[in-house]
Amino acid sequence: MERWSESPVWQSFSGEVYFEHRRPCDGSLLTRFRRILGEEGVEELLAQTVNVAVDIKAIDPSELESVIVDSTVQEKAVAHPTDSRLLERAREKLVEAAKAEGVELKQTYAKEGRELGRRASRYAHAKQFKRMRKVLKRHRTVVGRLVRDVKRKMALSPMSDRLSEILGRSDRIVEQTRQKKRQGEKKLYSIHAPEVECISKGKSRKPYEFGVKVGIATTWRGNLIVEARAFPGNPYDGHTLNEQLEQATILMQDTGVVPRTVYVDLGYRGVDQDNLQVEIIHRGKSKRLGVKCMSRLRRRQAIEPVIGHLKSDHGMNRCQLKGSLGDSIHAVLCAAGYNIRWLMRMILKHGIRHFLRLIFAGMVRTNEGYFPRNLFWNPSWT
Question: Is residue 336 domain-shared with residue 214, that is, in the same domain?
């Protein structure tokens, strides 16, 4: 909203005639509007980009039958979750919530907490892990004292949801930073985003990524995105294929085409019986595939630069939206932005006249002007 009020280009693009210094609306209105739309609402935007690509003949409908499916990680806007950072953030949020509730704490440990965080980072950098663990133990004791102090003083009075939530998350952080990890325990990697998961993709440069897994599907030829969906819980790639194909079918239902052939990597092995409606092709079946299928399989890697553009050009590298719903909406909006830019490239490639000819070919001339042939048209108007 602040950038909109300072940029005449943005205001002209959004339909304003005169430059305005004031904001058009409150910033929270965008958040509420996005929450009302939900994932289904933004999926409609992605579906319309596919329909436009078919209507202007930028892509043949038969090309939608072959898709490439892959998964990536959409990282959340959180700091790297070290134990010392998590403990210090838990202390800060707990003191802040207690003061908002009117609780008078015996001690906040503000100066000591900041110093403990700095010492832990320096010892870790110097690989003096015995000293680092001693500092973490003290930091854990500080947060535990604050948790018990708040619980004692709020024992006889009703506790707000915010304070109860912070207390529960602080308890989790104190327990997970101990030396022995409990079997099957799910770690908390962020105070404000508990839905964040630690996902390992086998990259040497970045072995762990903190966010949510996202499935992407593109056309085999043309690299148009026809599906984008977030999968919380870090499921196995093959177990997400059925839901990905279901979403792709829904988004392409206006075109009358359904996916028939799917090109995947080895992460999608062993799910042929769960997806009998499509033919799954990967290099693990190389001895059973013909020459034509093997040559088409070489193009499976074309989805990798698409994922790279989604992250570098369209904001998927860092999700700023709140909660699991924000993860789902953000993944679909990034894919819709990619498709809109894809349509602009196709218009420049084939020429403006070609697309104007296609648009007017689908319209009916009347005495009142031009009307779309399929929308708001009555034969009696002619």
Answer: yes
